[in-house]
Amino acid sequence: MWxxxxxxxxxxxxxxxxLMVEERINGELKLNQPAGHVEFGESIVAACARETREETxxxxxxxxxxxxxxxxxxxxxxxxxxxxxxxELGEHDESLVLGLADEGIEAAVWLTRDELVARAxxxxxPLILACVDDYLAGKSYPLAILQMFDEVQKFDGLxx
Length: 160
Description:
Largest sheet: 5 strands, mixed
Subunit structure: Monomer.
Structural class: alpha+beta
Family: Belongs to the Nudix hydrolase family. NudJ subfamily.
Strand order of the largest sheet: 5-1-7-6-9
Domain Nudix hydrolase: 1-133
CATH class: Alpha Beta
Protein name: Phosphatase NudJ
EC number: 3.6.1.-
Order of helices and strands: EEEEEHEEEHHEEE
Number of strands: 11
């Protein structure tokens, strides 16, 4: 049975540079935003904060929903639904070791859009530049647009 993968990503900019992650996948160095899968019982907002901390050692508080992106890996039925967020970057925690929770993470790096374009062959997916460009275009929505229910709630006989 086909199911898309629910993932989150943090689009974090500071002084014209974006926080990215260098990770080794099948022996190749790839670039991605701090991103990952939503775990069972976890909200997408909490998943974004957790993934950012695990992959970069920065604390991150999502404050806006940037958008929902869908991508199918060419030649496969592997599809990702990416929930992207912007927000407030907190302190860097020097005690956190990158790669403990996510195997393959090598470094957190800050890159300009031009530097990202120059390294396009290393992008893990086309969603990276799409998210950066949407951020630069000012696309964002209040977090209130998202709703999470811990259990099915019924409303007037319909599942809400």
